[in-house]
């Protein structure tokens, strides 16, 4: 009973969010930038549950894999090179050396993987933007990578390079990619500090970049600075968890106002930044959505 009341309330709140988001979405849909139009269409279709049978079939396979991971009994050693909790206040030295522990694959998959709504939104963005070269920071067990790679597979072009610091988590991600037969994906095991530069070099020019690891103010800005020179003339960067901590909010605000960023779409949970020299007037779209 409690559950159904909650689901009903969430549906109503989502409807309200959707209603309020309408004019901002219209602004995206009617924008002269094809990339902003594509992002607007992806958001609109996600909110209206519009999806083709072909796309849905691949999404079902990914969600089957997620379900298998969620019911896994396996425990693995992990090393966390991230920021831990929002208020953990770890130093860069502590994050750099990593914190070792053991965790169940089920718990890792539940707590760290992007929920279906957000992963499907990203899938739609990749389907519409048709990028050639994608890079992801933070593979985890491979759910968001599988969404991006499946979209590329359906596009019939493009490849994904994704970095994961924890070796055993990376092994599970490789199983995800193999299980779904995503030959367009390379999982790179190592910390972002160790692996980012070479990955950027081999993936340039990068059209689509998903930053979903190391939710720390300084780290986010550092990886952004390192990435910008390797981006294509027009590129989309998605930053996850922009409201996760004070530091993440501050870093996102700096990125939003960075001169090299032509337009941003703030969905509260994720932030999308467009790099495009053709847009001379900065545009900021605010469309807060629920998880
Ligand atoms: C939130 S999870 C990624 C979830 C994944 N993108 C998805 O939605 O399916 C973040 C991942 O980044 C990895 N990570 C965090 N900081 C890192 C760093 N500095 N170097 C390498 N990996 C890191 C963690 O081990 C974790 O698996």
Describe the structure.
The chain is an alpha/beta fold and 291 residues long. The protein has a domain at 52-66 and 110-286: Vaccinia Virus protein VP39 (Rossmann fold, 3-Layer(aba) Sandwich), CATH 3.40.50. It contains eleven helices and ten strands. A hairpin with a 3-residue loop joins strand 8 and strand 9. Helix 3 runs antiparallel to helix 7 and helix 10 packs parallel to helix 11. The longest helix has 28 residues, at 2-29. The two termini are 21 Å apart. The mean pLDDT is 92. S-adenosylmethionine (SAM) binds at residues 80-82, 112-114, 138, 140, 143-144, 163-166, 169, 191-192, 212-214.
List the helices and strands and how they pair.
Elements: H1 2-29, H2 34-47, H3 53-70, E1 75-80, H4 92-97, E2 99-104, H5 105-112, H6 116-129, E3 133-137, H7 143-155, E4 159-164, H8 167-179, E5 185-189, H9 192-203, E6 206-211, H10 217-227, E7 231-240, H11 246-256, E8 263-266, E9 270-276, E10 283-286
Parallel strand pairs: 3-4, 3-6, 4-5, 6-7, 8-10
Antiparallel strand pairs: 1-2, 7-9, 8-9
S-adenosylmethionine (SAM) binds next to helix 7 and strand 4.
């Amino acid at each position: 009973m409690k559950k159904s009341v909650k689901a009903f309330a969430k549906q109503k709140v989502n409807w309200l969010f959707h209603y309020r988001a309408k004019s901002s979405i219209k602004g995206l849909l009617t924008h002269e930038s094809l990339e902003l139009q594509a992002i607007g269409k992806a958001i609109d279709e996600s909110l209206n549950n519009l999806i083709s049978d072909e796309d849905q079939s691949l999404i079902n396979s990914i969600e089957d894999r997620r379900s298998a991971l969620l019911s896994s009994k396996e425990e693995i050693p992990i090393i966390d090179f991230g920021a831990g909790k929002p208020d953990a206040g770890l130093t860069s030295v502590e994050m750099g050396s990593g914190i070792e522990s053991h965790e169940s694959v089920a718990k890792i998959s539940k707590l760290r993987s992007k929920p279906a709504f957000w992963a499907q939104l990203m899938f739609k963005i990749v389907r519409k933007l048709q990028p050639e070269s994608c890079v992801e920071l933070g593979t985890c067990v491979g759910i968001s990578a599988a969404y991006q790679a499946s979209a590329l597979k359906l596009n019939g072009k493009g490849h994904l390079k994704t970095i994961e610091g924890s070796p055993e988590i990376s092994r599970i991600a490789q199983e995800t990619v193999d299980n779904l037969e995503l030959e367009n994906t390379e999982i790179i095991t190592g910390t972002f500090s160790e692996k980012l530069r070479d990955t950027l070099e081999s993936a340039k020019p990068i059209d689509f970049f998903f930053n979903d690891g190391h939710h720390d103010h300084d780290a986010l800005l550092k990886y952004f600075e390192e990435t910008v020179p390797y981006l294509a003339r027009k590129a989309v960067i998605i930053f996850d968890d922009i409201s996760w901590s004070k530091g993440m909010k501050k870093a996102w605000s700096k990125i939003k106002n960075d001169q090299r960023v032509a337009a941003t779409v703030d969905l509260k949970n994720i932030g999308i930044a467009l790099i495009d020299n053709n847009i001379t007037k900065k545009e900021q779209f605010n469309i807060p959505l629920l998880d």
